[in-house]
């Protein structure tokens, strides 16, 4: 399928650049150049190779509260563990999502002008790519999401990196708010769990490139499948509508991926060709193919997912098999699909193949859509709530100290978060989604799909979006029918 990409912040810029490079390296073109990157600091633009300069949009550079680049002192600590003073010196919005949203709101005319560079009639869907714990990623990203949802009829997805456990509570809090904002508004959210993918022996910042490579491989296998010119006819060829139909259920999605080498020797290919032409008996080799594909699909199921989750909590599944057509028999295909039905307990399993005649390997990419049992997101949510409580306690102390009559004053925020400290994050209720078989995925921005049961900003007031999520983090409406948590699954 064709996808336009909108990188936001440093993570978004790097990831979009990586996706563009992967397009060139693999010859799979799925963006047709429909890309943009927005940032409040220019440094990450300098790291790009494939992202054209005219597609790099710097915003907020004239905003008085946005820091300009300051040469860091040699002994300055990592940004994520930095003190307020260090943060003051970080370029851009320096981790502040309210400021990010304010800047994006102020610069909506500039953002809209840049959006004219992207032809939404040429693509099947749009995808915002960001670090959800970033001030720019969350703040600017949420305003951009609201803007795209209000002007596009195509689905808008979010691909977002989640902060690792050793990043600051502030980043976790911002990411939890971003999820809370994005899930009801976006047509689907595909989080990438930095914690799961980073090795503890190395600083996370040194592993971004490797993680981004992993993300690019999976996103290309998923979204670029079917975009290359068909060298061979395949009745099982993946259809972009299948990807959109799988994602149309909304919520959080996760991707698994596995590869095996195939026998590309002349004899192996000849034997398979004869079978396909009906000139040789199917039995032993076809059986081997089926067993191989089953093993491959099982490996993809058991692989480290972009967002680790319980796959039995998924709502819809899609599997794409890419490789030499001679190595993917219909029997193998059906065996893989049956395995997925069994392992996930859902009958909504779509499947398609991407014939790659010269490939020496077969790849299985599995998309789990609307997964609801995600302990990582629960943990992030709890951490965010604890952080918010701490912030509110500090505010209360200040309020008490400054109160003229000596009475204890509790801030509105604290009152809002006083009751239910461990409320879970809410997910999409499958039945409330696009059960009409809508393959356009064009219904997520409706009241029905808003699991939080609260109106999302879709106009110029979008600067309020992350702040709204903030006051709501503890899920005052968690008792809605849509609420599902890992606790309920355990
Ligand atoms: N996977 C991945 N994660 C990243 C990358 N860069 C940053 N992150 C993560 O994304 C989150 C936000 O970081 P940034 O992208 O630097 O932040 P930003 O959106 O530019 O906004 P600021 O906080 O204002 O700098 C953090 O949790 C980072 O660990 C990247 O290249 N790849």
From TrEMBL:
Biased composition (Low complexity): 478-490
GO BP, sorted A to Z: cell division; regulation of cell shape
Keywords: Cell cycle, Cell division, Cell shape, Cytoplasm, GTP-binding, Nucleotide-binding
Binding site for GTP: 135-137, 167, 194, 212
Composition-biased stretches (Acidic residues): 467-477
Subcellular location: Cytoplasm
Annotated CDD domains: CetZ_tubulin-like
Region (Disordered): 71-99, 388-490
Ranges of compositional bias, category Polar residues: 389-411, 438-449
A single cellular component GO annotation: cell division site
Residue ranges occupied by any Tubulin/FtsZ GTPase domain in the UniProt entry: 2-230
Biased composition (Basic and acidic residues): 425-437
Main subcellular localisation: cytoplasm
An annotated Gene Ontology molecular function: GTP binding
Key word Nucleotide-binding present: yes
Function: Involved in cell shape control.
Recorded family membership: Belongs to the CetZ family.
Name assigned to this protein: Tubulin-like protein CetZ
Organism: Halonotius pteroides
Lineage: Archaea, Methanobacteriati, Methanobacteriota, Stenosarchaea group, Halobacteria
């Amino acid at each position: 399928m064709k996808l336009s990409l909108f990188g936001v912040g440093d993570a978004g810029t790097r990831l979009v650049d990586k996706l563009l490079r992967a397009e060139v390296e693999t010859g799979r073109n799925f963006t047709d150049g429909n890309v943009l990157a927005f940032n409040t600091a220019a440094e990450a633009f300098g790291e790009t190779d494939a992202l054209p300069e005219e597609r790099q949009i710097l915003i907020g550079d004239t905003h008085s509260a946005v820091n300009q680049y300051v040469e860091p002192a040699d002994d300055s600590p990592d940004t994520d563990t930095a003190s307020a003073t260090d943060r003051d010196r970080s370029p851009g919005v320096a981790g502040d999502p309210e400021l990010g949203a304010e800047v994006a709101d102020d610069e909506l005319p500039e953002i809209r002008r840049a959006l004219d560079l992207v032809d939404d009639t040429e693509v099947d869907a749009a995808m915002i790519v960001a670090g959800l714990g970033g001030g720019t990623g969350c703040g600017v990203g949420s305003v951009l999401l609201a803007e795209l949802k209000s002007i596009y009829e195509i689905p808008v997805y979010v691909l977002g990196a989640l902060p690792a456990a050793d990043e600051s509570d502030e980043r976790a809090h911002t990411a939890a708010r971003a999820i809370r904002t994005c899930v009801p508004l976006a047509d689907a959210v595909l989080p990438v769990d930095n914690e799961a993918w980073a090795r503890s022996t190395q600083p996370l910042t040194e592993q971004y490139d490797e993680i981004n490579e992993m993300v690019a491989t999976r996103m290309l296998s998923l979204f670029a499948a079917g975009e290359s010119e068909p060298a061979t006819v395949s009745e099982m060829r993946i259809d972009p509508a299948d990807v959109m139909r799988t994602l149309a259920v909304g919520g959080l999605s996760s991707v698994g991926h596995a590869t095996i080498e195939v026998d590309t020797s002349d004899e192996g290919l000849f034997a398979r060709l004869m079978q396909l032409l009906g000139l040789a008996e199917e039995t032993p080799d076809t059986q081997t193919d089926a067993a191989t594909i089953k093993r491959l699909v099982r490996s993809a199921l058991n692989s480290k997912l972009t967002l680790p989750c319980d796959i039995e909590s998924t709502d819809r599944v899609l599997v794409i098999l890419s490789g030499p057509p001679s190595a993917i028999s219909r029997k193998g295909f059906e065996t893989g699909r049956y395995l997925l039905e069994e392992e996930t307990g859902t009958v909504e399993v779509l499947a398609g193949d991407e014939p790659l005649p010269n490939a020496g390997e077969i790849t299985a990419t599995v998309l789990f859509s609307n997964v609801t049992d995600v302990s990582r997101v629960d943990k992030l949510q709890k951490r965010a709530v604890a952080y918010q409580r701490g912030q509110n306690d500090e505010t209360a102390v200040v309020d008490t100290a400054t109160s003229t009559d000596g009475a204890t004053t509790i801030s509105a925020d604290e009152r809002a978060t006083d009751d239910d400290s461990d409320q879970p994050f809410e997910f999409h209720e499958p039945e409330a989604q696009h059960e009409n078989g809508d393959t356009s995925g064009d219904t997520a921005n409706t009241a029905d799909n808003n699991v939080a049961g609260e109106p999302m900003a879709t106009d110029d007031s979008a600067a309020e979006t992350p702040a709204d999520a903030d006051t709501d983090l503890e899920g005052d409406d968690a008792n809605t029918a849509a609420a599902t948590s890992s606790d309920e699954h355990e």
